[in-house]
Amino acid sequence: MTQSMDIIALEAAEASRVVFSTIAELASAICEEHLDSWSQRMLEAAGIHMKVVGREHIKRNENYIVMSNRQSHYDIAVLYQALGIPMQMVAPNDVARIPFLAMVSGKQILPVTIDGTRTIRQGNQPSESRRHTAHVTISAPIDPASCGPGQIDRLITVVTDAIGQHLPAPLGHLGSGENTLAEAPARII
User: Fold this and answer.
1) 170 or 51: which carries more pLDDT confidence?
2) Number of separate domains in the chain
3) pLDDT at position 110 over 90
4) 96 contacts: CB under 8 Å, gap ≥ 6
5) Suppose 166 and one of 77, 84, 137, 180 were both cysteines; which one would form an S-S bond, judging by CB atoms 3.0 to 4.6 Å apart?
């Protein structure tokens, strides 16, 4: 009797795991669909089209920590559409922890440069004369291990330089005004 109860308990546990896993995957797929739709509508409403360079650096079965500069509130929608991969966002006050997370997890950092969203004002109605172009450059992934163990400052410099090389003006340092790594989308899963 005890053995059959153990089998029933194990089967119930496995069934629960499968059900909860399926629910989580379904919820994630629904969120991704909503984010895709939202970002498309946002860019369309602002009259933004994109020129994307470097998509070949994204490997479909790879997980990255994506870091980019920030120019405006349109950047998240631009990133979502330009990259075409599921992402989780990190709050601006957590950005400083991202290089550490990359070092610990061993995940590569995918540097992305956004240029051209700074001058777009919220509420602009698109017209032929008000079309805007967001230039997105996806650089080659950076392996945190290449900077050496515990070399977070060096990793930050390498990532900042990779992003900054595609901007018309120097990127500056973390935390300063425009063109900073003020908000870093991250695909952490």
Assistant:
1) 51
2) 1
3) yes
4) 174
5) 137
